[in-house]
Write a structure and sequence with these properties.
This protein has 177 residues and is of the alpha/beta class. It is 37% helix and 17% strand.
Length: 177
């Protein structure tokens, strides 16, 4: 899925699908999210915008966190060959640890009227977390993203994949109709 040419005739079906899309990514600063972000930027450079939900850290703005993250070797090819793609990333302050994500109304409105695709890859994988904290991140955060998705005016794809890891038997797949 590498995109060396942005000529529409040479694009793959995936590149054509993502062209012009505005994507919301949760968990974009985690391992899976960073790889997803790099792959989308490098392989589908005609994406319109990538909204990246980011939890604020003490004494660091989300913009400085994003700039620091983008200095990672993972993004070397993008920085060297397509540095203009960095401008497509819009960091938005949010915290899945807090009910309602502690997101501004302006940012919620921005997503409601512009986001067309959601990648919800945020989760806590710390196995020593208290149940309340793990539930807040992995259940309540997901619930709020689903609530936000229901309000999104341009959402084209909403895919939910859940599975119960204890018995490996429960799997729910959902797609917006």
């Amino acid at each position: 899925m590498d995109c060396k040419q942005s000529n529409e005739g040479n694009q793959s079906p995936i590149q054509r699908f993502y062209a012009g899309q505005s994507i919301l990514i949760t968990g974009g600063t985690g391992f899976v999210g960073k790889v997803l972000l790099e792959k989308l930027l490098r392989s589908c450079p005609n994406i319109s915008t990538i909204y990246l939900l980011m939890r604020p850290k003490r004494n660091k703005s989300i913009e400085s966190q994003l700039n620091e993250m983008f200095e990672s070797p993972l993004y070397d090819r993008i920085r060297e060959k397509m540095p203009e793609l960095r401008k497509k990333i819009v960091p938005l302050r949010a915290d899945l640890n807090i009910d309602g994500l502690e997101m501004s109304e302006n940012d919620k409105t921005l997503l409601i009227y512009n986001a067309t695709i959601i990648f919800h890859v945020a989760a806590s994988v710390q196995f020593n977390l208290k149940l309340e904290a793990a539930t807040m991140i992995n259940v309540n955060g997901t619930r709020f993203i689903l609530y936000l998705a229901k309000r999104m005016q341009k959402l084209q794809l909403h895919l939910v994949l859940l599975n119960r890891s204890q018995d490996g038997m429960t799997m729910i797949w959902g797609q917006r109709e």
